[in-house]
Write a structure and sequence with these properties.
The complex is a heterodimer. By secondary structure, chain A is mostly beta strands. In chain A, 0% of the residues lie in helices and 53% in strands. The mean pLDDT of chain A is 92. In chain B, a hairpin with an 8-residue loop joins strand 9 and strand 10. Chain B is globular, with a radius of gyration of 13 Å. The mean pLDDT of chain B is 93. Classes of the chains: A mainly beta, B mainly beta. Chains A and B meet through strand 5, strand 6 and strand 11 of A and strand 4, strand 5, strand 9 and strand 10 of B.
Chain lengths: 116, 114
């Protein structure tokens, strides 16, 4: 069975601090996809990134960066120079590649609060 | 519309009643998903449509839950004989085909069963 663990329930930082959100996953599949989604107070989940299991290169997009370590089954997300607008719940998710579609298994989320 | 639209945004009902939740996906998206999110939890998969057919309904909790997508666009999630434990936010998402990576989510329908 697939499982995603986000051990950090809530993180509070002061604006401009860097923050890392942890994600650890479990799967028996050799091919899979990992995702991060942002859920602001409006409730709508916003896609941030998808990474497949064969691509362990780290990725940077503006202030966001992702560190995929297959050896430790982790897919951590770092926000550099955090801003108040980054305040949201962030979800890590995993999907099987052997089935059609994106049947995602989500973690329980990390509530990020960025204060002035 | 520009995004995934879900109606109603809020629904309060009494235990035992029948409820329908509607999802209007992004135009042209063939894949449509329903997820359920309880308070403090991540979304849980319910069902996935590719076109008009349910390609995977393994997440439906029991036979009180049913979903249709008769014309391959709008989908309706139907819940019979609602129970208090059905209270949650029901999220709909759409995507272009299978395994495209990005799913576009609606804002959800919050269901409260009294």
């Amino acid at each position: 069975a697939q499982k995603v663990t986000q051990a950090q329930t809530e993180i509070s930082v002061v604006e401009k601090e860097d923050v890392t959100l942890d994600c650890v996953y479990e799967t028996r599949d050799t091919t899979y996809y990992l995702f991060w989604y942002k859920q602001p107070p409006s409730g709508e989940l916003v896609f941030l990134i998808r990474r497949n299991s064969f691509d362990e290169q780290n990725e940077i997009s503006g202030r966001y960066s992702w560190n995929f370590q297959k050896s430790t089954s982790s897919f951590n997300f770092t926000i550099t120079a955090s801003q108040v607008v980054d305040s949201a719940v962030y979800f890590c998710a995993l999907s099987e590649a052997r089935r059609g579609g994106n049947k995602l298994t989500f973690g329980t989320g990390t509530q990020l609060k960025v204060e002035l | 519309g520009a995004g995934v639209s879900q109606t109603p945004s809020n629904k309060v009902t009494e235990k035992g009643k029948y409820v329908e939740l509607r999802c209007d996906p992004i135009s042209g998206h063939t894949a449509l998903y329903w997820y359920r999110q309880s308070l403090g939890q991540g979304p849980e998969f319910l069902i996935y449509f590719q076109g008009t057919g349910a390609a995977d309904d393994s997440g439906l909790p029991n036979d009180r839950f049913f979903a249709v997508r008769p014309e391959g666009s709008v989908s309706t999630l139907k819940i019979q004989r609602t129970e208090r434990g059905d209270s949650a936010v029901y999220l709909c998402a759409s995507g272009q085909g299978a395994n495209t990576g990005e799913l576009f989510f609606g804002e959800g329908s919050r269901l409260t069963v009294l």
